[in-house]
Amino acid sequence: MRNAIKIGLVSAAALTVLSACAAAKPEAPMDEGVCYHVGEDETQAFGIRYNVVARDQPQIEFCAARLEELRIKFLRMGGSNNDLIGAYQGHFIFIDRQGVKMSKTLDGPRFFALTRTGDGRLAIPGAIQREIDGRPIAIAP
């Protein structure tokens, strides 16, 4: 009977430790107005590093614009990665060919914030008029 109780207590303690480890996830920095690029770095916690891109950014959309500039600079220097991850005041920013998405976590649901126009610029999704077939009106067929 005592062994069963000991095994039960050890199992409960192990589950508590495992659940605490599973709950630990990277969080975006909360520094006010600071825009970060999130890069891979195995020497850092969670394998990511936060690199300051710009300071004094008044809104998350401004940070997204700075990150888009960085993405374009990387591509002009010969890079081939079209995706970029950033962070701003507790939110992660994901930039790809479709546009800009935001999330509170790296692996959670993402909110579509900005979409690409036909010429590649970023715009608020509702601001782009489309034909019935889905093509933007301002783009030649």
Polypeptide structure, described:
It contains two helices and seven strands; from the N terminus they run H-E-E-H-E-E-E-E-E. A hairpin with a 2-residue loop joins strand 3 and strand 4 (91-95). It has a seven-stranded antiparallel beta sheet with strand order 2-1-3-4-5-6-7, covered by helices on one side. By secondary structure, it is an alpha+beta fold. It has helices at 2-23, 60-76, and strands spanning 35-40, 48-54, 84-88, 91-95, 99-103, 111-116, 122-123.
Number of strands: 7
Helix-strand makeup class: alpha+beta
What string, H for helix and E for strand, traces the elements in order?
A: HEEHEEEEE
Reading side by side through the largest sheet, how are the strands ordered?
A: 2-1-3-4-5-6-7
- How far do the termini sit from each other? 78 Å
Strand content: 25-35%
The total of helices stands at 2
What average pLDDT do the residues reach?
Answer: 80
Helix content: 25-40%
Q: What about the largest sheet?
A: 7 strands, antiparallel
- Could you state the oligomeric state of the chains shown? single chain
> Unreliable stretches, pLDDT < 50, 5 or more residues?
6-20
Task: From the alpha carbons, calculate the radius of gyration and give it in angstroms.
Answer: 21 Å
What is the molecular shape? Answer: globular
